[in-house]
Amino acid sequence: MAAQQSQGIQTLLEAEKEAAKIIAQARQYRVQKLKDARSEALKEIEEYKKAKEQEFKAFESSHAGVNQEAQAAVDKETEAKLQSITSSYEAQKDAVVKKLLDRVVLVKPELHRNLKKAGQ
């Protein structure tokens, strides 16, 4: 009977060792699968980034002409307004300077209106 018990214990120990090996293999398999999944996900992310970057560049190139035309129109309008302002300045600067000098130089001394009321 002791031989049977020791043989049964030996069988159980061997089964336990076998189970531990199977569990270790399963853990290694799981770790490897996680690593593979991460690398696959990174590859997919890179491919997606490249695709979106190409899409953006295509969109940008197709709309670049519109932006350049709009910029040219704005620049032309700005230049026209600047010329208008400059010509207006040149035409009226002498008259404005004369008016300023007349106001400063030609002083007409008179009493303040509040002073007249008090003196009456």
Structure characteristics:
120 residues, mainly alpha, 92% helix, elongated, proton-transporting ATPase activity, rotational mechanism, ATP hydrolysis activity, transport
| Poorly predicted runs of 5 or more residues | none
- Counting DSSP H or I runs of 4 or more residues, the number of helices is 2
Backbone structural class: mainly alpha
What does the largest sheet look like?
none
Total beta strand runs = 0
Content of β-strand: under 5%
| Total domain units | 1
What's the SSE pattern?
HH
**What general form does the structure show?**
elongated
Terminal CA distance reads 145 Å
Helix content: over 70%
Rg, rounded, reads 47 Å
Describe this structure in words.
It contains 2 helices and no strands. The chain is mainly alpha-helical and 120 residues long. It has one domain. It comes from Punctularia strigosozonata (strain HHB-11173) (White-rot fungus). V-ATPase is a heteromultimeric enzyme made up of two complexes: the ATP-hydrolytic V1 complex and the proton translocation V0 complex.
